[in-house]
Every structure is written in C-alpha cells, then in structure tokens.
Amino acid sequence: MQARLKWVDGVCFMGETGSGHAVVMDGAPEGGGRNLGPRPMELVLLGTAGCTSYDVLSILKKSRQDVRDCWVEMEADRADIDPKVFTRIHFHFVVTGRGLKPDAVERAIKLSAEKYCSASIMLGKTADITHDFELRED
Predict the structure, then answer these.
(1) Which option is the CATH number for 40-137: 1.10.1670.10, 3.30.300.20, 3.40.190.10, 3.40.30.10?
(2) Neighbour-count burial of 70, counting CB atoms closer than 10 A to its CB (0-12 exposed, 13-18 middle, 19+ buried)
(3) Under CATH, which number does the domain 1-38 receive?
(4) Dihedrals φ, ψ of 31, to 5°?
(5) Of the chain's two ends, which shows fewer C-beta atoms within 10 Å, N or C?
(6) How far is Cα 118 from Cα 42, in angstroms, rounded to an integer?
(7) Is the bond preceding 29 in cis, omega lying within 30 degrees of 0?
C-alpha cells in the first residue's frame, strides 16, 4: 500500500492514495487552518468505521441476512496530552433490513472487532473500544 501527502499551505495538506483518490485535510481556524477538509484524526476514525462496516456487511451477506442499509455513529475521546491518541471509541451500528437476526448482527460485529478489522485492532492498543447496535425493519 502506498500513499502520498503534499503540503498545500498553513496546516492544509492534500493526500493521494495509491489507488488514485485524493482528500484534503486541514485544521481549524484557531489552529491556523481554513477548515477546508477533515482533520487527520477524524479520517482515522472514519477509516476505522469503514473497515469495520465492510467486515460487518460482508459477514451479514454471507449469513444471508437481508440488509438494506447500514451506518455507524461514532463517539471518541482522545488523551489530553501528547500523543493525543484515542482513549475511548464507541461504535453504534444501525442496520436496516428484513427479518434481521440480532444474534447474526452481534456475531458479525464481534468477528470484525476481534478478528478482521485491522484498524480497530490497532486502535484497540490505546483505546477502549465498545460496540452496540440497533435493528430497523425495512
């Protein structure tokens, strides 16, 4: 995996992934930024949600669950002193479908958290990570 990051101005950076996608990262105005894009640590949190969501949906499809929609709401705390690593992250999955089995969703989330999601497992070295979910019938 490769990536490239180029300084634009102030605390604004343009990142390019090895697959050719670009993202702008910037800081808050009080930190010298112009608020042109997400903060780098916000992207870490979103990337982790993407990683675990990919796993959960893949596992649910393999277990023949009729998933129609899925999203994850996250809350996180960071350390007060440098390095300001994540110390707590909570993932709340909202899964919509037809006839979804709660035990299948719970199992998919657990497998992702404990076995498949590289990002969650890395962040779990510094953060207490918790999960819950709600099911919505479509």
Answers:
(1) 3.30.300.20
(2) middle
(3) 2.20.25.10
(4) -105, 10
(5) N
(6) 17
(7) no
**What is the DSSP pairing of strand 128-137 with strand 86-98?**
parallel
Are the beta carbons of 87 and 126 closer than 8 angstroms? yes
Q: Which residues, including other chains, have CB under 8 Å from residue 41's CB and lie 6 or more apart?
A: 78, 84, 86
